[in-house]
């Protein structure tokens, strides 16, 4: 062995000694990597090692261990227990991420197997229901999304063409939900309250929600008695109460009420040529002018019962008055989602059915259609 040469304790090859201070080494220069250095306090045959051999050994030690494991063997000499003066190279971020994933591949696979087993054991039989709920959630998010950006003012003020484009873009326009629309509950309706019900929408704004009245649900006798006692001071003829039917309009605010008035010869249906015009006195439009908003031809919704009370004569059979206690309400996008899921069937221009069908037969007639 020539003077100034020593043996590498890793590869056992002889080389010239490098600089005493490892800080003077340039990692980009190959000759420096081939020189021997003394990275720790070892002496004798363990004193020297090639710079490149030490780096290669440190890299091998680090790659064989998990990221969270103890890396001291690559940092500290196991002979003299002193810290190496040459720090190991830090791998790139992508390499570290990939290494972490591969090192924990068995654990990740095991976790996935356990989760799948739990799912199959607890909810596998309801997979169809879960997929339906997921789909309805996505549809609801799609409907609510434009409202979250305050498009309400745009919808109220924009031209009809622009609004129709917005409606077709986000899907609600195809359902044509509007005041006067009938909602017929399908057999898939999960709610016990709304199962077998028919609802008349009287308010619908895409970014404000919807309100409606159940037309075919009976009201409690106690609620009817309370209402009649409250109205007694305004009634001169108690027999007038016999003209008014009662029903439950919805689960919300049942202390409140609205009156649904129906007449086949009133409002926009008023005409001298109408087959029932002979059954009423005077103009049908004047007869119904105080009945409230005409949601559909011949179907009026209001809150004033005095027009019914002031008429002491017996009314013809073409007149129908129904007090509905409470109302139904849907938040933004909820009704749209329920219709898309098949819980409701919509019916437009249902004036003729409402005027000719008793409330308790409405659902059976409409569901057959």
TrEMBL record:
Matches recorded under Pfam families: DUF179, RINGv
Protein name: RING-CH-type domain-containing protein
UniProt cross-references to SUPFAM superfamilies, sorted A to Z: RING/U-box, VC0467-like
Alphabetic keyword roster: Metal-binding, Zinc, Zinc-finger
One Gene Ontology term, aspect cellular component: cytosol
Biological classification of the source: Eukaryota, Viridiplantae, Streptophyta, Embryophyta, Tracheophyta
MF-aspect GO terms: zinc ion binding
Superkingdom assignment: Eukaryota
InterPro entries hit by this protein: AlgH-like, Znf_RING-CH, Znf_RING/FYVE/PHD
Domain RING-CH-type: 1-87
